[in-house]
Amino acid sequence: MSYTRSPQNSRPPRGKRPQRFEEAGDPIALLESVGPVETPPDFQSFDELDLSPIMRKAVAEAGFTKPSPIQAALIPHALAGTDVIGQARTGTGKTAAFSIPILEQLDSLEDCRDPQALIIVPTRELADQVAGEAARLAYGLPTEIAVLSGGKNMTKQLRQLENGVQIVVGTPGRVHDHLQRGTLRTNKVWSVVLDEADRMLDIGFRPQIERILRKCPRNRQTLLLSATLPAVVRRLAESYMVQPVVIDCCRNEMAVETIEQRYFTISQERKVELLEKLLKRENPEQAIIFCRTKRGTDRLYRQLSHDYHGACGAMHGDMQQRERDRVLQSLRDRKLKILVATDVVGRGIDITTISHIINFDVPQDCDDYVHRVGRTGRMGRDGVAYTFVVPGEGEVLTSIEQRINKLLIRDTMEGFDAPPPIADEPEKVAEPTETRRSLNPMNRKRKSRR
What we know:
The protein is α/β, with parallel strands linked by helices. The chain has two domains: 23-248, P-loop containing nucleotide triphosphate hydrolases (Rossmann fold, 3-Layer(aba) Sandwich), CATH 3.40.50; 259-410, P-loop containing nucleotide triphosphate hydrolases (Rossmann fold), CATH 3.40.50. The chain has helices at 27-34, 53-61, 69-79, 94-105, 124-137, 154-163, 172-181, 197-202, 206-215, 231-240, 271-282, 294-305, 321-332, 366-373, 394-404; strands spanning 37-38, 84-87, 117-120, 145-148, 167-170, 191-194, 221-226, 245-248, 259-265, 287-290, 312-315, 338-341, 356-359, 383-389, 409-410. The protein is globular, with a radius of gyration of 25 Å.
């Protein structure tokens, strides 16, 4: 049997664009408005997939035994050249799901020196991770993979592209930059992957993504992977994909079943004290503590560093890329036990030894909670997630529970009674005083008269 890519002219012809979907309350109806929805088959072995012997050997070498649902559903469609929208949680093997069919169909570098597959991801760390996973699955075959992301040496990237690459993995900003420079040629690209599409669109990369897609051949294959399918993602699919098949691996299962999810009700000023007691009680193998702001991340990191000498790190968007890479590598090497971070590590970072997730600050977006929690319980392993809720954040907690269709368990710690709920205090009438505080006229906050 030949394992070559299907001719691009065998793809269904582009006809009239379907009518724009209507927003509906039923999530299944929303998925069906994009394309036919399929549930994953129950394959027990990679031998049931139409893979070449060398790929089966590479998969076994990588330690995979049974295809995950997204892998079992997506690989056959990707090998057939179909456009696919895959909805699956993080930690379910999405990277291998799109990497395997791409690697199976690559032409050799002697036959084509221009990129054949373009994989777009939201963060620099995820770009490195996806490239590493693809290289691992290319075991036994020489494959040139270039990572185009910000914060990395531009000269090295230019040299790689000039020498010839088969797969490009990059962030939207840097890929778009190379397209504008004319250093990235896309005329031979036959597969485009948008990984973590909801996150890329959420952080404002839609203009760059659309320009990248318009630069690629119209008869390409497009694979869109996302943990959630908000309206902006579905509109992108409607505009740039041809008769896509929708694979739903999230139905009735937004939170990983192997993750125990709990919460504490605590006042803001006692959060750090509770965190220190919780870390002593749980003694996690490795834990990620999520904060809302970069300044709060640095502050909490300094406080925890006194107890975890050299075993605590911090990560946020203001750090230089070299430092971010060093922190992540230390976490992978198990040199760090605690990582304090913003949502910059909330997507796609795959480290199976993360046993605990602690939301020091409640995420304001329910999807961010799903992705934070997804950093533990990777590939079926057990994990625990704790969320600190302060008075006044009850509605956010309820929204999260509705989103994941699961109630979080309330936890308690001796000496940390739940603070009283915020009540509306009666308005106090100020007593008249003889002296008045004079204000600096330059700093008075008073509307100017018209």
